[in-house]
Design brief:
The protein is an alpha+beta fold. It is built from 6 helices and 29 strands. One of its GO terms (cellular component) is extracellular region.
Amino acid sequence: MDALVFFILALFSLSSTLFIIEASKIQSGFSVDLIHRDSPMSPFYNPSMSKLDLIRNAAFRSKTRLTRFSHSLSLLSNENFQSTESIIKPNNGDYLMRIYIGTPPVEKLAIFDTGSDLTWVQCSPCINCFAQDTPLYDRTKSSSHTNLTCDTQSCTLLPKKQQFCGKSQECLYSYHYGDKSFSVGELVVDSISFGSNSGVDVNNVDMTFPKSIFGCGYYNIFTADNSGKTSGLVGLGAGPLSLVSQLGHSIGRKFSYCLVPFGSNSTSKLTFGNQSTITGNEVVSTPLIIKSLEPTFYFVNLEGITIGQKTIQTGQIDGNIIIDSGTTLTYLEQPFFDDFVTSVKEAIGLEEAVDIPSPFHYCFEDPNSMFPSIVLHFTGANVPLQPKNVLLLEENNLVCLAIVPSNIAGISILGNLAQIDFQVEYDLDGKKLSFAPSDCTKN
């Protein structure tokens, strides 16, 4: 670790206690809104930007996201890696959610991320913070705040390369990212609420969790977002400090979301507990695979894809694709992608466009042409996709495939565009991921 980080960590000197969320009250479950960063309801919304501009921005965010997973997995697979860089790497995030921290509660707009574990926000007094429009979290003004010491079980849940001990045994974290962003601070406990600052939803369900563990960042550089709109990140990965892991059995260790189409005026829904269970004749399920070396990420196994009348196989059985809410495009590892795009070209029968905009790989110039049916074959689950899940309209009637090659060996990602208008349920206890087609503007 460099001298700067040592200096920062040495500044913290606070007492501590052990807490894990006590939240047995949420039996039926609850829902919160997910706001796409480019929707009219988002503080990032820019009415002067065309839909084409928004699509391109989302596509480039996907490219950044792919790099993030590459960085993460390379660290996790290398036991001798000694860098203090984090196992996560942020980007601007495609979806945002509102949380309320402390007593009295203070609203925060944070990035929703199924590919991260630790939830963290910027805190006062801040040594160095990136700009944000809302006040920093000030634990001295919260009556429900508690500190953590290094010997607590909660502190030991931090990855060893990111866990440090302060002069007064306070639990410190240091998360460095591949794009030179970082957050350094203290692991703390306080109340986190969802839905509203009262923590109660329209059905009178209490959505306040008084002993939530999260990072209180005092030294932060977030090069991915200088807008001042967001103040941190909410992690819903599979690791032990993620929000879903902390809520644990109180929500049956399950959650689901339903993502609305690009540009919709409706919010997407994130649901926890029994309400997240999806039912019906069209529900299909596939094993959810959590790998010991990559405990944050949700893997499933893609056995093959049918394009029209032709099926191509991956030949893999051990969890070969990450399902991710923060990536727009879908990435397929080569050479499987090469077989896939060749089959698409054969089925369409149209000439490939000459000038293909980055980061797309295959485009054609007839938006009225018949596109072949696409079915993803996961282990035990066949998921038919609609054109809106696989195509994006560029300028001059150029239609581009929203499935692109992964230029990083061993990494494929099922992006959020492929998940639009599906209810997607993560059942960690049941070890399964379920899909059901849906009109997400009505759910």
